[in-house]
Structures are given as structure tokens and as C-alpha cells.
Amino acid sequence: MASYTSLYRKYRPDTFDKMLGQKHIIKTLSNAVLAGKISHAYLFTGTRGTGKTSTAKIFAKAINCLSPHSDGSPCGVCEVCKALSSPNNMDILEMDAASNNSVDDIRDLIEKVKYVPVACKYKVYIIDEVHMLTMQAFNALLKTLEEPPEHTVFILATTEVHKLPQTILSRCMRFDFRLLSTIELANYLAGIFDKEGREYQKEAVRAIAEAGDGSVRDMLSVADMCLSYTQEKLTYDDVLEVLGASSPKLVVELCSAIIDHDAKKALEITDKIVSLGKSVALLARDISKMMRAMLYILNCSNANSFLSLPKDIYDSLVAVANNTDNGSLVRIIEIFVNIENELRTSSSPIITLEMSVVKACDLTIDLDGDAVIRRLKDVESKIRTMAKHFGDADDSLKLDLGEVWGFLLNSIKGSGSQQAYTCAAGITGEDLNFDNGVLYIKVESEKNLPVIKQYLKQFENIIRKRYFEITAVEISFFDKEKALNNDVKKVQDLFDEEMVNVTNSKNVNS
Q1: Which residues contact residue 16 at a Cβ distance below 8 angstroms, ignoring those fewer than 6 apart?
Q2: HSE-up of 496 (CA within 13 Å, CB side)?
């Protein structure tokens, strides 16, 4: 039985016109081949699976081809192209810097550079994962890279260009390979499935393309697994099973519970999905993707042309999206995107996920700085509306002043300063008032004044800059115990009888 060739190897491009994307790079290299303007060193950088090594091999053949095509691609039929297609050719040498990264390996390469090509005009050295070279190896390569023999061309490839010394970067012509769009990947994969004679759902191809995250090789690796999973028509559910992704219907239900602020239902669905053996990290990612889909639905009239979701899933998301807004969706997405790093190191990933689910259900307990600011803005809007309709001294405005202070309290609590929180918590809506341009604040103790002033400025600025012109701030001190005794005296006077053993304790002894 013949051995199976993986899709990414079977469909590796061998001419420029077969390269997917990277038009800016292909055009530059093609023109260089046709004009005969070949540099001594090239640097190909970009994410894995974007075509760096494939482009290097095509270019290495093209600059040696005896009769290149009109786009600069190697003809594949001349003697040189045939010689270079042989794995035993001595004129295109590939070196894996991940396993050959020492200074001795580079010295050996420098010795080989002296020899002229066997059958070609140029001898091409392709150094893959070049960022793995040691600093000593880089230093040994410098002089040769800057002034190699006329018959030598270096092509360096890396996924981590920031690790290369500036001395190397300055000696190379750099090309940055970009991630491919989901549409490009999906169209390319559909063409491959057609050539392979495999039936598929459009949504299944789209799901595989999204799983590729812009990488052709990653996408084709997933496609290989999907084709092995079933010999029948490839469906959207088949792809989800291969990827280990959660059922989209359950994820939509979970998102709906989050949008409806139903923490109980959200936790129940989370437990149900996790109990099916689904990855906690993948579930967090699936939630983010569904929330992202709702952003498209809220803002784009033709959202499903971008999303390519099954109709029943899309219709369900439309219904859920109508119950929320952009601000809430953005913050929920941030919550689940930000826990990915936490999940890698967490000793209890499920607890981390559940905390995020509850936080997403009730954004008022979210102490993130941006979230607090958003809530403050909501309250500020209420204050503006109340001021327009009821005037500065309205009781409703007084309550909203207390609500603004309450949000600042949450921010203080999140800062971790227990002393500051205790002092600031002594102020309630009853202690705040605004009248004729003067903001009145009652403080229980003069000892608390420095802490109160620290946060008072934030509170004052919200009112002054956005709504009312504050001409003065008056802070008064009062003794709560004395005030309570005065209230008791009023009760005694009212009933004209002696009050005995007045207390606020729940256990009163007769």
C-alpha cells in the first residue's frame, strides 16, 4: 500500500502563481528574477505556515532557471530545474538552525560557501529558524553574510525576528509574511477538497479555515484529520468533534444566559459542557467567538456573509444579540480572552472559568478599571438626565450622587487598601448634597479627612467637568453616636415618657 502524503506536502506550491496570498512579496521577487537584480541576503519573517520556506525554495530555483516563466517562476523542465528538484542536489542547501545552531555549524557552512555551484549560477543557502543560532554563531556569520562570494545567496527564515541581532537585520533584504484571511483559506481549502473528490458543507470548510488562524499549514493539518474522521460528506458537526470544540447550540445557550445576567443557568450550562470532556480553554475561546459573532450581528447588516454559521445557529445569535449592546459584548470578550494565560498556569482551570462566567453575568462586580469607568459614565448620564428634568436640589439627584460615590468605593476596594475603603465607606448618599453650586459632604471623623480628600477629587471632577459648576466644596464633621442620642431624645419628647435600655442589638434582655 502506498504511503499517504499529507495535504500540506501534497499541495506545497512550486511556482509563484500557486502561492497563496503574500502578493507584495511575490511581485517583488518576481521582478527581481526577471530583471536579474539578485541580492546577496534575504530575510523571510512571519508566523508559521505562511509560506516562508516554500517561497525560499521557489525563489532559489527561479534565480537559477534557464528559462523562467513570465511571472519569474521556474519553468520546471530545463536541466537546471530538473537537477534542483533532486534531493541530492548540491546547489540549494537547507539548514535547520533549531538543531544546528552552534558556532561550529556556522564555521562548517562558511567553509562550504567557498565552493562554486555544481550546475547552477547561484548556490543558495536556506537557513530555517535562524533565530535559534547562538550569539557566537551570529557573530561568525556576519562577515560572510555581508560580503559572500558572487555565486552565493543566503535566505534566512524565522518566526521570531525580534530575536535577531540588528547587525544581521541590517545586512538582509527583509520580507514580512502576513497571516492569511479566513476567506482566502476557505476558498483555497474548498479547491483542494474538490480536487480530492470529497463532499463537504460550506460551514465545515469555514470552520477548518478559522481553526487555521491564518496559517495554511495549520489549516491543512486540521483538514487532514477531518478527512480521516469520516469518509462521508464532511459536516460542520464533524469538524467540531475533531477540534474538540463545544456544541455551538450549548455555547449559544450559555451566551444567552450571560447576556440575561442569569448566573445560575450559566453555571449549570458550563458544568454540562465541561462534564462532556470539553477543554476549558477551548470553551473560553468558543464563548469569545460567539460574542464576537454578536458584535458583527449588531453592527453589520450582512453579518453571516463574514461568519458563515449554520442558519439555525445564526438565527439564535440574532435573537440573543438583540438583548445586549456593543459595550457589554466588548467587555465580556475581554474577560474570556484575558483568562487564556491564567488557564495555562491555573491549578484549577474550571474555577477560573466559572469565576469569569459569573463576572460576565454581572459586570457590576467587575473591578477592571475600564469597566468601572464605563459604569461611572452610565451613572453620569443618569445624573445629567435628572438635572435637566428635576433641578440641582432634587432628591433623586442626591441618590445618584451616592451611587457615583458607591462606584468609587468599588474602585477603592479593588486597589487593596483596606484602610482607605473603611474610611470612604463611612460616606453614604445621605451624607452628600448639592445646592446652588456648593457640594456638601458630611464626614464622620476628622481623622478620615486625608483619605477622603484623596478620592474626593475624582468624585468632584465628574460633577464639575460634566454637569455642574461647583463653586465650593464644604466638608462638615458629625458624631454619629451623638446624632443617635438626639434621635432618642426626640422620641422621648414625642411620647412624653421615659425610654429605658435603648439598644441596636438583636438580643434585648427585658
Answers
A1: 26, 29, 30, 58, 62, 71, 72, 73
A2: 0
- The answer on pLDDT for 376 being more than 80 is no
One-letter amino acid at 345 equals: T
Distance of CA 439 to CAs 113, 386, 407, 425, Å?
A: 81, 17, 18, 18
Distance CA 384, CA 465 (A): 12
Q: Amino acid letter at 67?
A: S
Residue 28 pLDDT more than 90? yes
Position 391 scores a pLDDT of: 46
pLDDT above 50 for 372: yes
| Cα–Cα distance for residue pair 116/79, rounded to 1 Å | 18
Identify the pLDDT of residue 447: 66
**pLDDT band at residue 410, thresholds of 50, 70 and 90?**
low
Smallest CA-to-CA distance from 173 within 148, 154, 150, 201 is with 154
pLDDT over threshold 80, residue 417: no
Mark residue 436 as left, alpha or beta (left: phi above 0; alpha: psi -120 to 50; beta: remaining).
left
The C-alpha atoms of residue 464 and residue 218 are separated, in whole angstroms, by 55
Buried (b) or exposed (e) across 162-195, using 16+ Cβ within 10 A?
eebeeebeebbeebebebbebeebbebbbebbee
Quick one: which of 70, 21, 6 has its CA closest to 179?
Answer: 21
Stated as kind and residue range, the H or E segment containing 123 is strand 123-128
Hey, how many other C-beta atoms are within 10 angstroms of the C-beta on 12?
A: 17
Residue whose grid cell is 462586580? 365
C-alpha grid cell, residue 363: 459586570
